[in-house]
Amino acid sequence: MRLRVTPRYLARLIKRQLPTSLFGRSLLIIVLPVALMQVAVTWIFFDAHWDTVTSRLSDGLAGEVAWAVEGYQDDKSPEAFAVLARRAEESLSLSIALQEGRVLPQNRRYSFFAPVDRALKRALAERLDAPFWFDTTRYPAYVDIRVQVDEGVLRVLAPRDRAFATQGHIFILWMTVATLLLTAVAILFIRNQTRAIERLASAADAFGRGVDDTGFKPHGAREVRQAAHAFLSMKSRIQRHIEQRTALLASVSHDLRTPLTRLKLELALAPPGTRTAEMKRDLAEMEHMIDEYLAFRSEDVG
After folding, report:
1. pLDDT over 60 (residue 5)
2. Cβ atoms < 10 Å from Cβ of 172
3. Is 132 helix (H, G, I), strand (E, B) or coil?
4. Fewest Cβ atoms nearer than 10 Å: which of 140, 163, 190, 296?
5. pTM (2 d.p.)
6. Is residue 145 part of a domain?
7. Torsion sign, CA atoms 60, 62, 67, 68
8. Residue 52's Cα: distance from chain center in Å?
9. Does some domain include residue 179?
């Protein structure tokens, strides 16, 4: 038997997973849109701004590295290389060194932000024909780029901000801190509002069990205070009705004692018999019921 997944079934399944308390639902209503907005803003920032800027910076750095490699290959004399290194240092802030007899490293550490390595790798692959290797994690302020040449390895140290935008982590940090602060403030406000409703529910439950919560006072939002005032008014009317009914029944019970006493006296003077004994037993039962009710009323009033 195949289970049909209908929209109504999905709605019930989602409803079971949602919080049941007022605090949980209120928190979800406020926090979920904020979290979705933060995710959307972060995604748009990285996709439309940070990734684009990083790609352009990586393309520019890859072009400068390709210029340095081509300049070295055009003239491999030490004097020409010294001039090339000096120009690269003065004009492009690139530190170029020739490591003769070296080969490219086999292992490479990857950056925490994958788009950084991906953008730089794509840019270098488009500009260079020779094998290359780079590391964006070894030096905090520089990017290590190495290109394989016939004489060894041509190593280029470039400033980190020349390869990619370095303010992305600061943006993420500020977004995270702002989200946490807004969430904390939302939790405090929601908790204050739900606490008033919880106290109203506790007072109503205590009144239903016959316990008088004298410390309950209306507080919270206007609607919650309005509901609390309505509850106190209802409670006062119910208590007044109970007191009036109790007083009426007590008065009736007290007034019944006089005719019951007369009936007892008449039965005492009546000739003994079966019906007389039954009437005495009924009168004793009625008197016992009245005595119990008056005792209960005196305890309740006391």
Report:
1. no
2. 15
3. strand
4. 140
5. 0.50
6. yes
7. positive
8. 32
9. no
Q: Report the half-sphere exposure of 88 (CA within 13 A, side-chain side).
A: 26
Number of Cβ within a 10 Å radius of residue 42: 17
202 with 209: CB under 8 angstroms?
no
H/E segment holding residue 85: helix 78-92
- Closest Cα partner for 57 from 123, 10, 114? 123
**Which tokens sit at 300?**
């309740």
**140 three-state secondary structure:** coil
Amino acid identity of 101? G
Strand runs labelled E in the chain? 95-100, 132-135, 142-149, 152-159
CB 161 within 8 A of CB 58: no
Three-state DSSP at 148 gives strand
- Using CA atoms, how far apart are residues 71 and 88, in angstroms rounded to an integer? 11
CB 136 within 8 A of CB 125: no
Q: Based on the domain organization, do 161 and 262 belong to the same domain?
A: no
102, two tokens: 């070296």
The mean per-residue pLDDT over the stretch 98-123 comes to 78
Instruction: Establish if 62 belongs to a structural domain.
Output: yes
Tens of pLDDT, residue by residue over 112-158, are 555 667 888 888 898 888 899 988 888 888 889 999 998 899 999 99
SS3 207: helix
Domain region containing 132: 17-169
Q: Which of 195, 302, 191 minimizes the C-alpha distance to 246?
A: 302
Using alpha carbons only, what angle is made at residue 214 by residues 208 and 218, rounded to the nearest 5 degrees? Answer: 90
In 10 A of CB 66, how many CB atoms? 19
What's the residue count for the chain?
302
Fill in the DSSP letter of residue 235. H
> Does residue 5 lie within any of the structural domains?
no
Same domain, 37 and 163: yes
User: Does residue 32 sit in the same domain as residue 157?
Assistant: yes
Residue at which a domain ends, from 169, 203, 238: 169
Tokens of 282: 């009924």
